Amino acid sequence: RQKIMTNSCQRRIGIMGGTFDPIHYGHLRAADEAHAAFGLSEVIFVPTGQPPHKAGEKVSSSGDRYMMTVLATVDCPYFSVSRIEIDKTGKSYTIDTLRQLKAMPEYHDTEFYFITGLDAVLDIVSWKNPEEIMSMCKFVAVSRYGYARSRMEELPEDLRSAIISLEIPLLAISSTGLRERVRRDRSIRFLVPPSVEHYIRKKSLYRDI
Ligand code: ATP
Ligand code: MG
User: Fold this and answer.
1) Alpha-carbon distances, residue 51 vs 82, 93, 103, 138 (angstroms)
2) How many angstroms separate the CA atoms of 99 and 112, rounded?
3) Lowest-confidence region among 22-36, 40-54, 103-117, 141-155
4) Nearest CA residue ID for atom 27, ligand 1
5) pLDDT over threshold 80, residue 182
6) Ligand 1: which residue has its CA nearest to atom 13?
7) For the whole model, what pTM was predicted?
8) Lowest model confidence (mean pLDDT) among 9-13, 73-77, 198-202
9) Bridge partners for 15 per DSSP
């Protein structure tokens, strides 16, 4: 008798990668929208080690970015943070992280949903092995302020057809904007969780950029 395998026996887990310098409500809302839309059991935030796309730019230490990501997610029962990329030496690539996660026994029956903002999606041709990334997970493109969904037409057809679009309420928040606000002594209240705001002040982050 043929055994019918359905996707319903698979766990679905979201992966939210980012520099998180600092993490903000834009990231948290995007992860929460994906959690609801795809029935994810969990969303794992993966702060990057040395980000390949940000070579030359000043990035806060992995320790500070990890700590802020933990502080921002600790209250949510289905959010967690992984050290998988920050514990690596050298550059982190999404493809390597996905391979590593998929090789773990606890994730052998898991379908990963890789959650990405539209700005990052438009950049995907510059990533390492984009086709393979797409074949290893569900690749989700969430709305991002300033990036029209129609710009996905710029992507090669084979990549574009594999991307799942998810419309989410736009929050015009970026880490770049937040760093700039801190540097200019402007408030970041209601843009990041209070614990993150306090951590930034306590460690005097973003003062000297
Ligand atoms: P930076 O300005 O330093 O690039 P950022 O705000 O873009 O910071 P990242 O850590 O680069 O944050 O982003 C991680 C992921 O979160 C990316 O996929 C990005 O597109 C997505 N993202 C960031 N901010 C938002 C937002 N406000 N709404 C939706 N997605 C977002
Ligand atoms: Mg960014």
Assistant:
1) 15, 8, 23, 22
2) 11
3) 40-54
4) 26
5) yes
6) 18
7) 0.94
8) 9-13
9) 44, 114
